[in-house]
Specification:
Layout (H helix, E strand, L loop, with lengths): L32 H10 L14 H4 L7 H4 L12 E4 L5 E7 L1 H5 L1 H11 L1 E7 L11 E2 L4 E2 L1 H17 L3 E5 L6 E3 L2 E2 L2 H16 L5 E4 L9 H7 L9 E2 H4 L5 H11 L2 E3 L9 E2 L2 E2 L2 E2 L9 H6 L1 H9 L4
Parallel strand pairs: 2-3, 2-6, 6-9, 9-11
Antiparallel strand pairs: 1-3, 4-5, 7-8, 10-12, 13-14
Helix pairs in contact: 5-12, 7-10
Length: 310
């Protein structure tokens, strides 16, 4: 299958008297866009679960790809004492990745790019706290998410002080709420995002909106575990997977604010969105990519961001 020869295999040695120091992961494979699109197009033909699925069903749900407990702001936090830095900490070119858990979802790829290009990559992520300037509803505590408003202001202040060359913004738009049972509309999402992007564009060399990912009907690992011989039961049509994902609003907001927009949909779906592409588990739940699949997208993301991946 397409990705098999490129997968990274980690062997854990137990019971050794003196284990060697941990080694940094090998660089992510540079999968060409043409090869990726071919794999996406072939994915609907997969019927049985690949025997060498990576990550395995047992580990896919936990395949975040970075230390999220350390690097993401806690629910009650409105700032980060020390933002996590990736790539080259001494790099002359400063880059910021900003958003909610979907920003963290792309960190395995962004950190690879930062290492390759000697960027100093600073990560500002707070789960359930999207980037648009709107007061979202804290769905766990059933109240306005005021900490999110303050976190967003804090990040913009940090960007203002650092004046990075590039800010990448990405958030989950699916089922976000402004009040109890009050869903955010595409128009509201667009207006709030324009406000955030305008503030960032004043102090950053370039701002890029990374489009939202489609949402599966069921959690990828759970569905695949129940349908190992009928993977098609876990497919979601592209139309349904994107019906409440406000990518058109985000693209329009980016255009209005002078930011760039990157659609990630071709990297995930043809006419259907599948939880397996090649022999890689794509999703760790309904909403988030596995860290493994995100790393597989390093090359195409780098090309989309800077054009040159040499």
């Amino acid at each position: 299958m397409f990705f098999r020869s490129r997968l990274l295999v980690v062997v854990l040695l137990a019971g050794c008297a003196a284990a060697p120091p941990p080694q940094p992961p090998a660089p992510a494979p540079k999968v060409a866009l043409s090869g990726l699109l071919a794999a996406v197009n072939k994915a609907p033909g997969i019927r049985a679960l690949p025997p060498d699925l990576t990550p395995s069903l047992a580990t896919a749900a936990a395949d975040v790809g970075f230390d999220n407990e350390k690097c993401e702001a806690a629910p009650a936090a409105d700032r980060m004492d020390t933002p996590c830095v990736f790539g080259d900490p001494a790099g002359a070119e400063r880059v910021v990745l900003f958003g909610d858990s979907h920003a963290g979802m792309w960190l395995p790829a962004m950190s690879e790019i930062a290492t390759h290009r000697h960027w100093r990559l600073e990560f500002y992520g707070k789960p359930a706290c999207p980037a648009p300037r709107l007061t979202f509803w804290n769905q766990q505590e059933a109240r306005p998410f005021d900490e999110c408003d303050r976190f967003r202001d804090y990040v913009i202040d940090q960007v203002r002080a650092a004046r990075p060359a590039l800010v990448v913004v990405t958030s989950e738009s699916f089922s976000q709420k402004l009040g109890r049972g009050v869903l955010v509309t595409p128009a509201q999402w667009k207006t709030g995002l324009i406000t955030t992007l305008n503030a960032l564009s004043l102090v950053a060399g370039r701002v890029v909106v990374l489009g939202d990912t489609p949402v599966l009907d069921r959690s990828g690992p759970e569905c695949l575990a129940a349908h190992t011989r009928n993977v098609t039961a876990c497919f979601t049509s592209r139309a349904k997977a994107t019906a409440r994902v406000w990518n058109a609003a985000e693209k329009s907001a980016a255009g209005s604010a002078g930011a760039d927009y990157i659609s990630v949909l071709p990297w995930l779906c043809g006419t259907v969105c599948t939880p397996v592409i090649g022999n890689v588990a794509v999703y760790r739940n309904r909403f988030h990519l596995t860290g493994t699949y995100a790393r597989m997208l390093t090359g195409v993301l780098e090309q989309a961001l800077v054009g040159d991946v040499s």
